[in-house]
Structure formats: C-alpha cells, structure tokens
Amino acid sequence: MKEHPVLGQVALGYSPMIDRQRNVVATRVTVFPNSGETQPDARALLAALQEVWPAPAEGADLQLTLRPLDPGGAKPRAATPGAAATPTAHPVSLNIAGEALLRAVMEAGPPPHLMIEVPAFMATDAGNAAALSELRQAGSLLLIKGRPLVPVTPEVLACFSHSIVEADEDRRAGNPPAPGVRQVSTVQAGTRTSAAVEQAFQRGSVAVLGWPLDDPLPKATGRAKVATDIQVVMELIQGVDRELPVSRLEDILRRDPTLAFRLLRYLNSPAFGLSAEITSFGHAIMMLGYARLKRWLALLLASASKSANAQPLLHAAVRRGLLMEELGRLNGDPEMRGEMFLCGVFSLLDRLLQQPFSELLGSVPVPERVQQTLRGAGGPYEPYLDLVRAIEQEAVFDIRECTEKLLLGPAEVNRAVLVALRGARQLDG
Prior knowledge:
Blueprint: E1 10-18, E2 24-33, H1 42-52, E3 92-96, H2 99-107, E4 114-119, H3 120-123, H4 129-137, E5 142-145, H5 154-157, E6 160-166, E7 185-189, H6 194-202, E8 207-209, H7 228-241, H8 246-253, H9 257-267, H10 281-302, H11 311-329, H12 334-346, H13 349-353, H14 357-360, H15 368-374, H16 382-392, H17 396-405, H18 410-428
Parallel strand pairs: 2-3, 3-4, 4-5, 5-6, 6-7, 7-8
Antiparallel strand pairs: 1-2, 1-8
Helix pairs in contact: 1-2, 1-18, 7-8, 7-10, 9-10, 10-12, 11-12, 11-16, 11-18, 12-15, 16-17
C-alpha cells in the first residue's frame, strides 16, 4: 500500500453493516480528524480508501442491496449457514466525525461507490441542498444520520436512500418516526448484542451497524471434546506446527472431505496471489510452507461455527487476526507476528464455538503467550488486542490511548487497519 501522509492526521475505526440474513454487506469506516491546525487532505483520504475499496467494474449497478421483509410479516427470511453476503457495489460507508472534513470530502467529488453519511443537522441546512443534490446526481449513495429536529424538505430527502438511527433514538416501537425520515429505509446503529440486532429487525430496520460482541460469555459445557470437523482442524494445526510428513497430514485431512474443499478454496483465493492453482494439501505445503499454512488453518477453525448468527463474529475474527498481524509487523519479529495473528483470530473462538476458553484451550494448540491473552491473564499481546477492540468500537479516545501505550504513531496504526481490511476483502472474495 502506498504511503499516505493523511493517515497521520486522522484516527480510523470500522464496523460492519449486517443485513437480515446476518450477512455483512458493507463496512462502515469512521474517520476522526486529529486535533490540530492542519485540516486532513480530503482527496488524499479518498485515495487511501480506494486502495482498499477500488471502483467496481464499469457498468456495475451502484445500489446498496438489502433484502426486504417477507411479504406480510416482520420476520426476516431464514438464513442459510455459510451463505454468501448479499452482493453490493457499495462496500463501504464513510462516516466522517468532523463537519469541516466532511464538507471537504463532499467538495472533492467522492467516487460513487463510496457511501457518504450526512448528519441530520446538515441535511436540514438549506445551504447544503445544492451540494447534496449534485452528489446524488453524480451517482453517490447518501445516508442521513440521526433524527432531524425539523422536517427535511422533500427535495433534500429524495437525495437519501437510507437513514441511520442510533438504537436509543429509534422510537418506531411506540411512536411515529421523526419528521423527514419516514420515507427512507432505516439502518440502526449502535447494536452491541444479538438481542439488540433481532429487536432492530423486528422494528423494521433493513440493516444494523455494529458488532454483536457484548453478549454474555459462554458458560462451561462440561464437554471434553469438540465437534469432529473442529477436531480435524486442530489436529492439522498441531501437525503443521510439528512439521509432520505430508502423508501424515493428508491422512488427517481425508477424514473430512468438506474441510479439504474449504481449505483449497482459501488457498486459491486472490489473497495469496499465487500463479498456479493449489490442487492438494501436499502441493499447498510445497508452495506455502508450514508456517504460512498454519495461519489459514486458524481461519478455518474460526469459521467452523454452523450458526448463521456467527457470520458477523467470523467477519470480526478474520479482521482481528489480519490487523494484529499487521501491528506485529511493525516490530519486525516474524514469530511474534504469527502468534499475534493467531491471537486475533482465536480471540472470538469462545463465542464462535460457544465454549469458554477454560475448556477450549485444553484442545486448541496455541502458544503460551497467546493463551495468556485469551485467558485474560495479560501477556505481551493484550495491549494490541485492546487497540483492535477500540478500533472495532470506533472509540476515538481509546484508540489514541492504546496507540500511545504501544508507542505507535497514528499513521502506522491506520495503515495497518487499511492493509488488514484490504486483505480481508480479498479473502472474502
């Protein structure tokens, strides 16, 4: 990724946009301008974002595709576990937490495939009507954010495809909507639990913004073993870690043909950029080596949950692993970087598999330093995981505090965020 000086002038956070089938259909990127006299360069910011989310192919239908309710009812259609996310030509929603920078981005002519969130107070300002209309005519998809205190004119309201309403501002359950937002579909922000997500959809939201990471932690199950397919992945990780002969590893893999297919699909994804197609497990080891292969087995383990509700957690786990790895790259220690990747991916394994770490860590082969962090016992990776969590929650003060504790610069962290998100998109593809 190119060097973008603007990354030293902002703090970045991200969260998912989740549809009724619990698929992640877009990423919300929140941009916080750093305090100071220098206004971040809006064009440079857009250029950096387009390295992660390039423009779609010419002729693509630039619509945010969110599935509606079933006819005649408020319940979402049944989700299919592992189903692909709804295709969209608008993969990112840009939430800029600074009026001056947002105006500069609007004036810079953002590419149409980037969704732009506009605060309600700006939508009700007559002085912004012309700029909003020009953006819409240029193909931009605009989302009005928050509840307007006064009615939005029909002409301006027509510029918006969706409204974003925080959970504590959503009054649809017992009161009529605020003036000016009745005619657009609602995306509810601030969802932090599975129950809050379900309630938002019951109220008629077409999507939610936020990670459902505040559910209660799973309780002890008393199960001594995990499911067979999960056990196969863990045995493979252990075998790769010990560098067992290829024939031994292939014998393990033959116990689960579906797993073999999924593994080859990962290895042949654009994220690897390999010139030759990987056709077997032995071929994968020859091309990638044991160390690199181990990380993708970790991703397979994290994706072992059969629940459709786990899809946002898997989405988060992949990004945590890649972001932890990029942050680890800054210290130049390959072993530490690999362990940080495992720490990020496995940090949600208890929620994905619905077993506490006190049970899982007896079976999951992870290094001692990773175990320390997963058990909540500190360890060298805990400050990095705290930073990743702050970025996920788009908590700017926590982001800055964690960054300073690690003696990192904003540009280093933001570049790691964008590189990780780009790598995750390639894996998703």
